[in-house]
Amino acid sequence: MTATTDAPRPADEPPAPAAASSVETTDLSKQYDTPMGLAHTTMQALKDRIKLHYDLASDYYLNLWGEHIHHGYWATDEAKTNDSKEVAQVNLIRLLLTISGVAEGGRVLDVGCGIGGTSRFLASQLGCTVTGITISGKQVEMATRLTKNEATAASPAEEVTVSPDADGFLALGKGKVRFIELDAEKMGEFFVSDAGRFDAVWISEALSHFPNKALFFNNAHKVLREGGKLALADWFKGEGLADKEFENDIKPIEDGMLLPPLCTQQDYVKFATDAGLKVIGGPKDISKDVSKTWDISWSLVQNPSLWAFAFSQGRDGIAFLQAFRAMRRGYANGSFRYAVMAFEK
Ligand SMILES: C[S@@+](CC[C@H](N)C(=O)[O-])C[C@H]1O[C@@H](n2cnc3c(N)ncnc32)[C@H](O)[C@@H]1O
Fold it and tell me: Most buried pick, 141, 148, 155, 204, via CB within 10 A?
């Protein structure tokens, strides 16, 4: 399906709330406005579209966002004033480490690993042995290339081995890392011979893409050893939303960001405990300390070539950029939430 530039805003779409409206609409975004809320069932399989999105957009993510495709965390007023997006993104990883107790030197499965920013951090800074999985083959390629570059840059004067070992791992700092193209919903079967052998499962802003959340928690339980940790950061809808809040704020996010229905934080706790995991951290709602990400992102995407690219990708590309406004609106209204949490087997 292809978007048209002159598609009108639906007559019944309410105006954006006053607090957010002055910053969320620009000439560029108005030019490409598109109706929201088409059900995923009317389009091709959601997972194929997610894979296609990351195959096509990951070069842009790297150029605009850097190696981490997740929010930044600005915990204090001082941080909000001083910390760059890149520093804040690493601080989100540090927060997850603190609440989960994922330890140095462990064997980690990074589920929905993007272009490997977190996997590399855990390998190089904590000496972990990290397997990153992503549905996007393009991301595997990019993550592998970035890892080789980092390994080479870290020891320019020495003889650096950047070829993989027998299990496909590349040495990085004190640890090592490898990337595999895999639909995470198949990880239970794929890692069957590794059942009970991972010290940690890490999942940052990926589970909201998965259609079957309960399956993920069951699989995490399968691959973790006794005492192993699950560290999780994700996007949520608020508890008890009115229909109107859901339609105005959450629906366009689900639609544009290629998400099956969003869950609440307590939904995840229930899935996890039903799977036999114990809560050890959170849920810690950090919405107010991450929302700045979308102020930065919105200014970053005011770039005509990016909108032209999105437009060339048809309806999904435009809906994706349009969802940025909904993210800001959802955070401002409190209907859209961000939280971290940790579990133990
Ligand atoms: C927002 S990015 C987060 C990337 C990374 N975790 C980070 O924090 O930088 C979402 C990731 O989830 C992955 N993903 C989505 N659905 C997936 C699936 N079914 N199986 C594996 N990966 C998936 C995407 O390929 C992408 O890498």
Answer: 204
Q: How far does residue 257's CA lie from ligand 1's centre (Å)?
A: 12
Indicate if ligand 1 lies below 6 Å from the C-beta of 184.
Answer: yes
Q: If you search the block for the tokens 């927060």, which residue do you land on?
A: 95
| pTM of this structure | 0.88
**DSSP structure string for 178-222:** EEEE--GGGHHHHTGGGTT-EEEEEEES-GGG-S-HHHHHHHHHH
Q: Which atom of ligand 1 is nearest to the CA of 67?
A: 9
User: What does the angle CA 124 – CA 58 – CA 331 come to, to the nearest 5 degrees?
Assistant: 90
Most confident of 33-42, 219-228, 291-300: 219-228
d(CA 114, CA 71) in angstroms, rounded, equals 13
Among candidate residues 83, 100, 129, the one with its CA nearest the CA of residue 204 = 100
Phi, psi dihedral angles at 2 (to 5 degrees): -115, 135
The pLDDT of 90-107, averaged and rounded, is 98
Q: Is the CB of 72 under 6 A from ligand 1?
A: no
Domain spanning 46-306+327-344, CATH architecture: 3-Layer(aba) Sandwich (3.40)
Q: Write the residue with the smallest CA distance to atom 26 of ligand 1.
A: 114
Only one residue has tokens 């560290």, namely: 231
Cα separation values, 76 from 79, 81, 95, 290, 306, Å: 5, 9, 13, 11, 32
- Measured by CA distance, the residue closest to atom 27 of ligand 1 is 114
Dist. CA 148–CA 171, nearest whole Å: 9
Domain ranges of the chain: 46-306+327-344
Per-residue pLDDT tens over the stretch 157-214: 655 568 999 999 999 999 999 999 999 999 999 999 999 999 999 999 999 999 899 9
Report residue 21 as tokens. 């409206």
Which atom belonging to ligand 1 lies closest to the Cα atom of 69? 9
Does residue 236 or residue 48 have the better pLDDT? 236
Mean pLDDT, residues 295-320 taken together: 83
